Structure formats: C-alpha cells, structure tokens
Amino acid sequence: MLQKLNQLGMKPTLKTLTCIAALFMLLPLPVMQYVGEEGLMALKSYEMFVRDDWLHSSIFGMIWPHSVLWHWPVIAISSLIGWEHVDLAVRFTSVMATWLGATCAAMTARWLYGSKHAHVGWLAALVYLSMGEVAFWYGWLGYVDATFGFFIFAAITSLWRAIEDERFTWFLLSLFFISLAFLTKNITAYVLFGISGFILLWQLKRWSLLKKFWFIPSGLLALSVPVLWQSFVVPSGANTATTSINDVLRNFTGYSIFDYLKHWISFPLIFLFRALPVSLVLVWLWLRKKHRFILDQKLTILALLLIACFLPFWISAGATPRYLVPLYGLVALLLTGFMLQLNPQHLRQSIMLIALVVLLKIPYSLAILPYIKDWRPERDVKIVSTEIMQLTENAPLRTQNDVASGLAIAAYIDVWRQQRKPIHWYDGQENNVYILAEVETPAFGRLVKKWHLRGSYVYLYWQEKALP
Q1: What pLDDT is recorded for position 430?
Q2: DSSP result, 90-153
Q3: Coil, strand or helix: which one is 462?
Q4: What burial class does residue 27 get, using C-beta atoms within 10 Å of its C-beta: 0-12 exposed, 13-18 middle, 19+ buried?
C-alpha cells in the first residue's frame, strides 16, 4: 500500500503542499491585533525582560507562579526584531512549535509506516499542518498550547520508540521532552505521559522494562523536575500545582447532569470536526461503505493512545477543545495510517481536498478572521490604546483591568513607550494617577472616558487621592 504514493507520482505535490501549508501558518501574524490571552502572554514576556528575570513571570508587577520556558523564545525574538513587535514574537513562537510538531509527525510516520518511503513523512506533516485546529487557530495563536502540545507529542512518540526498541537513549529523550512540557505550562503533561506509557507497555508487552536498572531511576529523576522547580524557583507561599488543580476541579463542579450529557455527546464530535478535512473524508467513506479500514497493531496503539488521553477531558463537563491540542499529533499519525489504505482515486481526492483547505487559509487569514476580530470599530484595541496614551500623557498609569481587552491595551502601551516602567496594578495607595478599570468604579475618582470594546467596557479614571 505504501507504494501507492510513488505510483501516483505524488511526492513532489506532497512536498510543495507541505511547504506551502507551513508558510501559510505565518499569514495571520502581522494582520491580527491581540486575540484573547495573547495580550497576557506578551505582558508576561515583556515584564520578565524588563526585570531581567528569566525564571519568574509577572502580571502587572505581581509575580505569577507559572512555568516560564515558553517566554524565553518570545524574549529572544522580541529583542531581535524590537519589542514593539512582540505581538509577532508570541505568534511566531507558536508557529515554530507547529513546524516542529509537523517534523515530529513526519519522522514518526517514517518509523511507523516504512523508512524506505520518505514521502510518507511528507504526507503526515501535511495532514498535521492542514488540520483545522492547527491550521486555523492554535497552530499560530500566541498561546502556550502549540508549544505545550509539541513537547507532549514528541515525548509520547519518543517513549513509544524507547519501549518498542528497548532503547535507553529514546527513553531519556522522552523524559527530556516531557520535562520541557511541564516547564512550558503545567503538570498535566505528566498525566498524558503516564497514560501513554501504560498503553504502550501493555500493547507492546514490554513490562520487563520496569525491571531494567535504568528505567525507574531515570523516570523518577524526570518526575522530580516539578519538585525541584517548586523548591528552588517558585517564590515562597506560591505553588505551581495550584492553578492546575483548581482548573481540574472547575471542570467537574457546578454542572448539571444536562451539562455532562451535552459535553459527553458533543466533545467527541468537536474533536473529530476540528481534525478536518481528512477526518471527515475518512468518516464519510466509512459511513458510505466505500472503504473498510483495518486496524493493525500500530493503528490500534494510536487509537488506544488517543482514547486514553481523551478520556480525562471527556468525562468532565467543563473541559474545552483547547485541552486537546497535544493530541493532534497522534491524530495526524492515525489519519495518515488510514489514508495509506485508500485506493488511488480516494487518496488523490483526499490530497486535493487538503490542498483546497490550505488555500482557504489566504482569505481566512487576510479577510475573514480580521473582520470578525478587528475591523469593526468597537473591536479596535489599538485605537483605544493610542487614545489612552494621548489622554494620560506623562502622568502615571495604573490598571485594575485584567480581562482580555485590558491586558491587550496594557501590552500595547508598555511596548509603545518602553522608556517608562510597565503598567502596574493599582493598589489603592497612590494618588494623582490614571487608572484603567474593568467595571464602573466611582471610588477611583473622576471618570475621564469610557470605551465600548469587544463586548465590554473600559473605564479611564483620574485619581487625585489614595483610597481610604
């Protein structure tokens, strides 16, 4: 079946499409204003740079016990291209992680499906880069998810090779990647890693590895990374696990049985839909009985890995599709394996559909997405940020606005006037300061102006006296 791509002469097409898909990940970078948490990520990176502290992130001057590795390339890129372009830096960091994820998918596909067929790697990379969740959203968005997802994907695939080939070097590499995943976001990386390890040991019948002298000590060493980070880096009184535990509890508590039922039904469908276009093509062929897919051992392992890693998010009621980003590398490998079973006609049609989706990135990135997010007057954060700078001039500016629009405003103003200290949180003790507020707060003094921005309001006050 693997010779099919050779017979179809698809290798040049696959290489070209993959390179185009990779380059098109850059399209939204210079077009969009800050989306969602991007302002927060830019703020944390800039404040780390200003404080010359690469181990502790902060928000409006307050130290935040989050992992910081993701901010390092943002700081490096922004220092190179200028901090006024930090919005490009946070997104380019995600794009680089996406490119690395595609490379990991390519290398793993060659290992799984035949090292003599290099074009299979190109196919896997193309499938990964064309999936809706990757191509149209988290693959370029300036969040930690693309980087977090890449490290988890690389850790799981390295662990697979370590267990199947019983190679210590691959095991060390998997531990290295999962440690980087923790340093990028949080300890949930170890949950997915542990689940995957159990599935692989079970399916490959390698339980004897647990008796190897190198297995347990090196594994414990990697698992000690959160403890060491907590002990030597995180400020006293803070805890790296607090946010993760609270997030988990929020996903399970306060929901009705109807919410649970709705989530249980919709979540798999959302996951499948966001893996389009290949996922929907394969489902359509299966439902129309035009093809019957065979699950060999490799595809069975991939399916079990996905089901097992998907389950913790499925059983809750509040988990969002964002949590599933680390699974899309495994999805790409599974879809690639199924595509290799298609007949030549269906295979060619699938690749042409991928090409169409890749081309849709042009109008989506340059017109549709900016119109939805930026081009309406009540969504233009840059105009409001410029006006605030004009109104406040050289007076001190503080904030009590930590929603997305307030974070975006602060992120723009900070890097537009780098000669001044970053905007800090208003503690009520200062006077003769301007204050950005999320809600109407007469105690902050005279209301200078308010703006309707992205579905909420932003208030600018002039405070002449400290709060009582």
Answers
A1: 86
A2: HHHHHHHHHHHHHHHHHHHHHHHH-TT-HHHHHHHHHHHHHSHHIIIIITTSSSSHHHHHHHHH
A3: strand
A4: middle
Q: What is the DSSP string of 153-201?
A: HHHHHHHHHHHHHT-HHHHHHHHHHHHHHHHHS-THHHHHHHHHHHHHH
Q: What is the mean pLDDT of residues 417-424?
A: 93
In order, the DSSP letters of 378-441 are: GG-HHHHHHHHHHHHTTS-EEEE--SHHHHHHHHHHHHHSTTSPPPEE--S---SEEEEESS--
Q: Are 433 and 358 in contact (CB under 8 A)?
A: no
Helix (H, G, I), strand (E, B) or coil at 2: coil
pLDDT for 458 equals: 95
pLDDT digits (tens, 9 = 90+) for 207-218: 988 888 777 788
Under 8 Å between Cβ of 446 and 456: no
Question: Which of 138, 96, 74, 136 lies closest to 366 in space, CA to CA?
Answer: 136
Output phi, psi for 381, to 5 deg.
-70, -35
Residue 53: what residue type?
D
Q: Can you give 281-335 as a three-state secondary structure string?
A: HHHHHHHCCCCCCCCCHHHHHHHHHHHHHHHHHHCCCCCCHHHHHHHHHHHHHHH
Handedness of CA 442, 458, 57, 134 (dihedral sign): positive
How far is it, in rounded angstroms, from Cα 87 to Cα 452?
A: 23
Quick one: 319 exposed, middle or buried, by C-beta within 10 A (0-12, 13-18, 19+)? buried
The C-alpha angle 96, 100, 103, rounded to 5 degrees, equals 140
Query: Which residue type, as a one-letter code, is found at position 340?
Result: L
The 10s digit of each residue's pLDDT in 234-285 is 776 666 655 566 666 677 777 889 989 999 999 999 999 999 999 988 988 8
Instruction: Give the rounded distance of the alpha carbon of 377 from its chain centre.
Output: 29
At residue 256, φ and ψ (nearest 5 deg) are -85, 170
Q: Over 70: is that where the pLDDT of 387 sits?
A: yes
Residues 334, 327: contact at Cβ < 8 Å?
no
pTM: 0.93
Q: How far is CA 78 from CA 26, 93, 108, 113, 386, in A?
A: 16, 11, 32, 40, 21
For residue 62, the cross-strand partners are: 59
* Distance in angstroms (rounded) separating the CA atoms of residues 32 and 164: 44
CA distance 88 to 280: 32
